[in-house]
Amino acid sequence: MSSYVGVVVSDPWLHSQFTQVELRTLKSKFNSNKTLLDRFTVGDLPPVLAKLNAFSGTFDEDEIKSVLDKSYSNTSDQEVDFETFLRAYLSVQARGVEKSGGSKASSSSFLKTSTTTVHHAINESEKASYVSHVNSYLRDDPFLKSYLPIDPATNAFFDLVKDGVLFKLINLAVPGTIDERAINTKKILNPWERNENLTLGLNSAKAIGCTVVNIGTQDIAEGRPYLVLGLISQIIKIQMLADLNFKKTPSLFQLVDDTQDAEELMGLAPEKVLLKWMNFHLKKAGYEKQVTNFSSDVKDGEAYAYLLNALAPEHSSHVALETKDPTERAKKVLEQAEKMDCKRYLSPKDIVDGSANLNLAFVAQIFQHRNGLTDDSSKSTSFAEMMKDDVESSREERCFRLWINSLGTATYVNNVFEDLRNGWVLLEVLDKVSPGSVNWKHANKPPIKMPFKKVENCNEVIKIGKELRFSLVNVAGNDIVQGNKKLLLAFLWQLMRYTMLQLLKNLRSHSQGKEIADADILYWANRKVKRVGRTSQAESFRDKNLSSGIFFLELLTAVEPRVVNWSLVTSGETEEDKKLNATYIISVARKLGCSIFLLPEDIIEVNQKMMLILAASIMYWSLQQQSDTESNVSEDATDEGDANSVSGEISNLSLDEASESSPIVQDQELLTKADEDTDKDVVDGDGDGENNNDAQ
C-alpha cells in the first residue's frame, strides 16, 4: 500500500488555511469546472462558488461577484489556476464572517461548514490540561512510558500524535475499541505505517462518537495543533462521561421520580445528565440557582463551593462561600477539590473565564470520584424491565447513532430513539446521502412545539424513503414521532444499506447506472478470496462459519496482502479465539481505511446486517483504491481528470481499455458476473444475499 500524499499547494501560507479534506474537495470542484469549461476564468467564479455548500444560502452570485471585484477588477477574462481558486474562496469566506457579525461566536454556523485554520487559535490552558491527562493515564503504557511525561510548554505533544500512538486514549475512553495488535509501534515508522496508525485512529475515533469531519490523516501527520486538540478533547470528554448512564451507574435513577422521567433521562446527552446530577445535589445543599451550562453559570465559583461541601462534608469549609473575589473563591474551591484528587483539569483562571470544556471535565472528575448517590435496590428493580429493553436494542441504536454522527450532519445525535422523533435529523441524513432529495421549504426546523409539525417532517421522511425504494409498507410518519423503535431501526438499516450500495454503484463506471445488490457483494467477496488461493467461502451473510472470522481475514488479505499479520490469527474454534479474531478484523479494516461501526459480537453472532456492511466496506475500499490509482494516472497525463470528492465518488474509468491483468478489471469481471446471476433472482434487503420473500 503506497503512502498517502495529500493535495500540495506551493504557497505555504495558502496551504495552511485548509485541511486536507477541504483541499481534496475544492480540488475536485476546481478540476470538474476546468474540464467542463473550455477556459475557467475569473468571470466564471461567482456561479461556481455560489454552488459550494459553504456558501449556499449565504451568498448569491451577485454578492460573490461584488466581493471578488475588489481583488480581481478588470480581470474577468483572466484564466484561473487552483491557487487563484483557493484565494477567491478565502475572500468570500472572510466576507461571510463579517456578514454574520465579525466574530467567531456569531459566525459559528458558517464556520461549521468551512472550518479552516485561519479561524482557530490554541487554548494553552486546554492544551496543558490534556497533556496532564495523557501523562497521568498513559504513564505506565509500555510503549509510551519512554516518551512521558510530556512538557506542555513544548510541541512534543503534537509530535507524538503524528505517529498515531496517542489514539491509545481511545481505548481508555471505550475499552477494547482498538485491538492494539493492529497498531504499528516501532520507534521509527515509515510513511505507510504512520498513515495506517492515523487511519486506524481516525476511524476508531468515529466509532466511539467523535466528530472528525474535515480532518484527514495528513492534517494529523502535519501536527496541526487546533485539529489535534479538538480531537483529543473529544476523546477525553467521552472517557470522562463514560459512567453517566444507567448501565454503568444504576444509582442515577435517584435523579428521577417515575418511569417517564427515567425514560427522558436515558435519552439525554451525558453532559445534560451531568448537569442534572449537579443540580440534584445543589438543590439539596440549599443552592437556589439552576446551573444550565459549564461556563457562565459556574464562573463565580459559588456553585462549586456548594457542590463540594455537599459531596465531601469532611473537607467542607465556608471560607470559599464567604470570599467575595471570584478568583480567590476559585482558588479555595480548587484547594478543596485537591483533597478529593480533583484538580487536574483547570486553574482558578479557567473557572473565572468560564472555560466550558475544562469545567465540564472538572465536574465529570468530581462525579467519578464521588457521585454522592446511594444504591437504592428497590428503585433500581422497578426500572429493570425498561433497562432490559434498552439492552436488547442498544447495539443497533449505537451503530446507527455513530454512523449518523460520522456523516457530519449539523445536529449531533445522542440517542436515536429520542433525537430522531421530530424528523429533522432524518431529513438532514437523507439530504446527505441523497443530495437534493429534501425540499427544505416543507421542513419544520427545531425547536418544534406543535406535534403536527413533527408529523409533517416525518411524513416527508417516509415520502423520500419510498422514493428511494425502501420497504415502508403500512409505515407512517406518526410511527417515528411516537418512537416506534422497531420501525425506526428498520428505516435506519435501509438508509445505511442504501448509502453503502450507492457508494459502490458510483465506483462502478461500467455499470451504466445499474443497481448493486447484496448478492453482488457476496459474489465479489467469495471470488476475491478464491482468486488469491484461499479456501474460505461464505454461503450467505448469515453463514454461521463467518463467526470464526477467518473468511474476513482472508478477504482483507486478498485486497491488501500486507495488512494482516497471520501470526496473530487464531483458529476461531473457541469463543475466546473468535473474539480475538473479531476484534482484530475490525481494527485491521479500520487501519486499512474502512469506516465501520460494528462490534466484535456482531461478527461472533453473525449479525447478517453487519456482515453485509463489513463486506461492502472492504469492497468499497478495494475498488476505490484501484480507481484512485487509475484516476491519478489519467490526471497526471492530461491534468484535466476529475479528482475524487471527499465522499470517494470518482470519475469514470476506461475499464474496457485496461489490461486484462489489472486488479480493477478483475473486480469488474466479478461484479459483471454477479449482475448476470442476480438478474435471475429476487434479492431481499436483509443482508444475506439469499432469495426469500421475508418481510423487511
Automatic annotation (TrEMBL):
<keyword id="KW-0206">Cytoskeleton</keyword>
<dbReference type="InterPro" id="IPR001715">
    <property type="entry name" value="CH_dom"/>
</dbReference>
<dbReference type="Pfam" id="PF00307">
    <property type="entry name" value="CH"/>
</dbReference>
<keyword id="KW-0963">Cytoplasm</keyword>
<feature type="compositionally biased region" description="Basic and acidic residues">
    <location>
        <begin position="670"/>
        <end position="683"/>
    </location>
</feature>
<feature type="compositionally biased region" description="Polar residues">
    <location>
        <begin position="644"/>
        <end position="665"/>
    </location>
</feature>
<feature type="domain" description="Calponin-homology (CH)">
    <location>
        <begin position="124"/>
        <end position="240"/>
    </location>
</feature>
<dbReference type="InterPro" id="IPR036872">
    <property type="entry name" value="CH_dom_sf"/>
</dbReference>
<feature type="compositionally biased region" description="Acidic residues">
    <location>
        <begin position="684"/>
        <end position="696"/>
    </location>
</feature>
<dbReference type="InterPro" id="IPR039959">
    <property type="entry name" value="Fimbrin/Plastin"/>
</dbReference>
<keyword id="KW-0677">Repeat</keyword>
<feature type="domain" description="Calponin-homology (CH)">
    <location>
        <begin position="394"/>
        <end position="500"/>
    </location>
</feature>
<feature type="domain" description="Calponin-homology (CH)">
    <location>
        <begin position="268"/>
        <end position="371"/>
    </location>
</feature>
<dbReference type="InterPro" id="IPR001589">
    <property type="entry name" value="Actinin_actin-bd_CS"/>
</dbReference>
<feature type="domain" description="Calponin-homology (CH)">
    <location>
        <begin position="515"/>
        <end position="623"/>
    </location>
</feature>
<keyword id="KW-0009">Actin-binding</keyword>
<protein>
    <recommendedName>
        <fullName>Calponin-homology (CH) domain-containing protein</fullName>
    </recommendedName>
</protein>
<comment type="subunit">
    <text>Interacts with F-actin.</text>
</comment>
<feature type="region of interest" description="Disordered">
    <location>
        <begin position="630"/>
        <end position="696"/>
    </location>
</feature>
